[in-house]
Amino acid sequence: MFRVLTCLRDQHNWALVLLAAVVCVSASLTAMTLVRRAKKSASGERMRWVLTAGAATGFGIWATHFIAMMAYDPGVVAGYDLVNTLVSLVVAVTITAAGIGLAAMESKLVWRSVGGALVGLGVAGMHYTGMLALEVPAHIHWAKDLVAVSILLGMAFGAASLSVATSEAKHGLWAGAGLLVLGIVGHHFTGMGAINMIADPTRQLSGLTLSPDSMSLTIAAVALAVLGLCAATILHRQKLEDLAEANERHFGALVDAIQDYAIYMLDPNGRVSNWNTAAQRFKGYSAEEIVGQGFEVFYPEAQRRAGKPQRALQTAVEQGRFEEEALRVRKDGSHFYAHVVLTPMFEPNGRLLGFAKITRDVTQTKADRERLRQTTHNFDTALRHMSQGLCLYDAEERLILANPRVMEIFNSDPEKVVPGVLFRDQVIRIMQARGASPEMIEERYRAHRALIDQPGGGSMIIEAGGVVLSVSHRPMPDGGWVSTYDDITERRRDEARIAHMARHDGLTGLPNREHFNAHLDQDLERAARQGQKVAAIAIDLNRFKEINDLRGHAAGDQVLKTIADRLSGICGEAEFTARLGGDEFACVKRFTETRDLTDFIARLQTALNASIDLDGFEVAPGGSVGVAIYPEDAAQRESLMNNADLALYRAKSSPKSSQSENVCFYEARMDEAARDRRALAKDLWQAIARDEFTVHYQVQKAVDTQEITGYEALLRWKHPERGHVSPVDFIPVAEECGAILDIGEWVLRTACAEAARWNNQAKIAVNLSPVQLGHVDLVHMVHSILIETGLSPRRLELEITESTIIGDKARALHILRQIKALGVTIAIDDFGTGYSSLDTLNSFPFDKIKIDRSFLMEAEHSPQARAIIRAILALGKSLQVPVLAEGVETLTQLELLRSEGCDEAQGYYFGRPAALVPDEAPDKIARSA
């Protein structure tokens, strides 16, 4: 290495070294540009670019070498042998061209590296052949190790240079050129460092030599000119290719923008070579899926087997064009009609390049043409088969054409509707055939002419011989007109049926609510004029839901139709019945004598209570009847029906011991009771804001130890005018009007807040209404109140009755499980009084069972009540659920519970419910009596 550096420092002209460097860099950039161009060129052009690259690279390396050689000062007079100089140029061009060709034509990295190494070997061959051209009066000796290193350096950097330059790397051109420069420089100066000259004055130079002074600038100028020419050629070619690519892009964009035509190319063998977006839309294939496949995939299987695709290509080549409309197949297998044009493309020398194929979907066009053909062909057929009769008249009232339907409608002789007949004569003949008088005929003709002459024409309805016709006359610009005759007899019947359906019940055929209201209004008006009375009667079937549930809806429908037939059958003059919906019926009785109304009601009861045979199973649905009488009970229809409904409500809710008690007449006190409930409901909505509610607490104790286990929160209401209102009275009203949701939330929040301030861990039990349990926000409300008040969830117990969950059991139990997941305990209240208590216990893991007070009240004198208590306690023990007995009022009752093993109890014996005074200990509640 020291020897090489010494040679570079002491034996070189740095001006010429710089000139060699310029030529070297220019040659390397030119060489890498040509190599990349050759790599990207088509196979037909690649060899031309390889030879150009080899010549430019070899010449540039050769020029670099000799300029660098001229920069070398051996210390003696030197010259260059012309023959060896030219041989070195041939070696440089030949070997580098071979290496570039191998790197440009092979895609694998190993072969590209071998090609680069061959270029490095060409540099070495040129260098040492050129050194043979050096003529000096001395003997040249070589350091073999440096010679080997110089050759390896050139090959290594050459391999790296072409590997990078022929890759897809972003900066491959500059990196490849730099590596080649390093290879040339490294090889040259390492090789120059291997020279050792021993002067020999006796050695004579050959006669045919070139002096360094005459070669240096000449070679540099020629080399730079050649390289510049190559660079200019490359730039010009790049501009041409950029322009071609831009044109190709523009053409491709233009082709892709054409959405009505599929435009694509086929190679000479019929394989798809490119694809536009319209082709993808028409045929379903993406470019990746179809390019390279034969175009016969677009043909139906039968056509492919018949060789039609190949014949199409052959025809296109022979005749210069192939065109057809035929069936084609999409990717998904669907068929469409296509208009196809197939055009061959040839090179100037006549060689077939491929085919241009243009396809257009003409399915809709073909269908439109077919429809037009059919329309034209079948125009006469359409006239013959029109449902309307049609006549065309000219401005002179002469018939131009008429379809056969006209003769069918008017039952006319065909001779009466032949072209040329006057419209007036037609009217006369048709009207005379029906026995019309001349006056009537003239009046009808004038009516027709009035419609024909008015702007836009007009229509009229004609009824004759049980036939209803709609006649329309439409004038035309030339003074004639078109008349159409439509037989609307059936339509009128349908309209009558629809009108009947709009006023009658679809199942029973009885008048519906709207019809009933209209009839009642008419009867009230007539009664007012004639001084009569009108009874409005509301009817509900008693056992209809039970029949529906047990026997199915078909049986329920049969019951409704049977009752409807009976009610309709008993109605005579001044009597009317209707079905209002569901199992609700209503009747109207206009009367003067009370016995007439009594007789009608008796017939109603017979109709309602007579048994009905349901496929061998007899049922007697029965019915409740409410009666209100005009004018005593009300003067208007709405009020009269409201009062009848109030009477019906009383009839349904009252216990019945006989059939006659199913009928209830309206009394004024019923309305007073209804008004009282409405007033109570109104006050309930304002009771919370007015602070009228209080919560009282009743203690719950363990039966054995008398230890306090909890308290039940009981709501009390002190009305400002009514005083204390019993929960039995206001809770049902609150549930009906919806106020129970706000009241229940207030009770829960108040009870939890007060319990959180107690100095013990007793539970607080709060009752849940069925309305609360059905509310979607219940779980969130309970959770929020526990967080707000700070009460531990395990201290809260929610009590529900079995009737609370019986309506929608699955949903109710789902909500209870969510509440239980919060840590709140759930107790079932009034156990044993429901319909399926054991099934309810099996469906949900309740935390406590509360025995209804009615069993304990009867236990002292009823063995059956005692047995029920014993059974419930045994059930609780088997389920490991504690049992609490309500209504303990005496020591005897308590001892009974203790002997039977009851867990907890509450009642007046332990203390009456009391309000909790602020800062007062809750145990005082237990001592209040």
What report would you give on this structure?
The protein contains 35 helices and 32 strands. It is flat and about 165 Å long. A hairpin with a 5-residue loop joins strand 23 and strand 24 (708-719). Strands 23-24-26-27-28-29-30-31 form an eight-stranded mixed beta barrel, surrounded by four helices. Strands 7-6-10-9-8 form a five-stranded antiparallel β-sheet, with helices on both faces. The protein has a five-stranded antiparallel β-sheet with strand order 12-11-15-14-13. 54% of the residues lie in helices and 20% in strands. The protein has five domains: 2-236, no CATH class; 258-370, Beta-Lactamase, CATH 3.30.450; 388-494, PAS domain (Beta-Lactamase, 2-Layer Sandwich), CATH 3.30.450.20; 504-666, Reverse transcriptase/Diguanylate cyclase domain (Alpha-Beta Plaits, 2-Layer Sandwich), CATH 3.30.70; 680-927, Alpha-Beta Barrel (TIM Barrel). It starts with a helix and ends with a helix. Helix 3 packs antiparallel against helix 8, helix 20 (544-551) packs antiparallel against helix 21 and helix 24 packs across helix 25 (727-737). It is an alpha+beta fold and 929 residues long.
